[in-house]
């Protein structure tokens, strides 16, 4: 028997007043998956993350985490914001240790965890820097580190690398794959970049322009590990990028995938 999914959405709809943002979205996510959400601005990507985070409730349908309905935010479902959302008055290390101190973790253990996490996010030796002393990429690494330190089971990332230059962005993507290999944390990653989605994910979901439905799902079958970045030149990478591009351009997957995939299980 297949293992129970970590996250299960069954006909999830969400409305703001009279406007339907998500319309009967269904999908399942397994443990340790990395799934990206692509879709035009306003199609409901952030809304879906907010539902999974528990900041909002579906208008109808069921959204289950580990078999139980999501009714409120919880430490097992962590959000990484675009800006990193750091505390300016705390150093990198203190930012990472903050969530641990909230949970009553002893000081010595906090220090061990933050040392490990700083290394994991490529900031070994930079723990004493304040946010104003860091580059955008470093701040974003601390933002990821702060979330990782709390050991969530799922990380919800809303365009986390959109505000940095291309080289830093690629380095952060490769870093994230290393972190994923080390933690096996499930990741839902929202992006506008098809390349980023294909590079990071084992599945890519494309949301439709109107009506808040899912248009298509793509399996990404690239060899692992991918973090040397060379997969970006793999013919399968380029082929998938083209297929997803054409799907999004057409606004309908019919031309490229043959069928509209409403239920993405
Ligand atoms: N608080 C709100 N009240 C009313 N409508 C809202 C609210 N927040 C978002 N919306 C609407 O819901 C829709 C989906 O918004 P959402 O932020 O989920 O889109 P998105 O896919 O994340 O877009 P983007 O790529 O620009 O971030 C949009 O039409 C938006 O105008
Ligand atoms: Mg958004």
Please explain how this structure is put together.
The structure is a single chain. The protein is built from eight helices and eleven strands. With 265 residues, it is of the alpha/beta class. The strands form two sheets. The protein has a six-stranded mixed β-sheet with strand order 6-7-8-3-9-10, sandwiched between helices. The two termini are 15 Å apart. Residues 253-265 have low confidence and may be disordered. Bound molecules: adenosine-5'-triphosphate and magnesium ion.
In short:
This protein is of the alpha/beta class. It has helices spanning about 45-55, 90-100, 105-120, 135-150, 165-185, 195-200, 235-250, 255, and strands spanning about 5-15, 20-30, 35-40, 60-65, 70, 75-80, 155-160, 185-190, 205, 215-220, 265.
Shape: globular
Beta-strand content estimate? 15-25%
CATH class of the domain at 1-76 and 187-265: Alpha Beta
Q: Main β-sheet: number of strands, strand sense, barrel status?
A: 6 strands, mixed
The name of the CATH topology of the domain at 1-76 and 187-265 is Rossmann fold
Output the strand order for the largest sheet: 6-7-8-3-9-10
Rg value? 19 Å
Helix content: 25-40%
Order of helices and strands: EEEHEEEHHHEHEHEEHHE
Which residues form runs of ≥5 with pLDDT under 50? 253-265
CATH superfamily membership of the domain at 1-76 and 187-265: P-loop containing nucleotide triphosphate hydrolases
Would you identify the CATH architecture of the domain at 1-76 and 187-265? 3-Layer(aba) Sandwich
Counting DSSP H or I runs of 4 or more residues, the number of helices is 8
Specify the structural class. alpha/beta
What distance separates the N and C termini?
15 Å
Number of strands: 11
User: Mean of residue pLDDT?
Assistant: 87
Bound ligands: adenosine-5'-triphosphate, magnesium ion
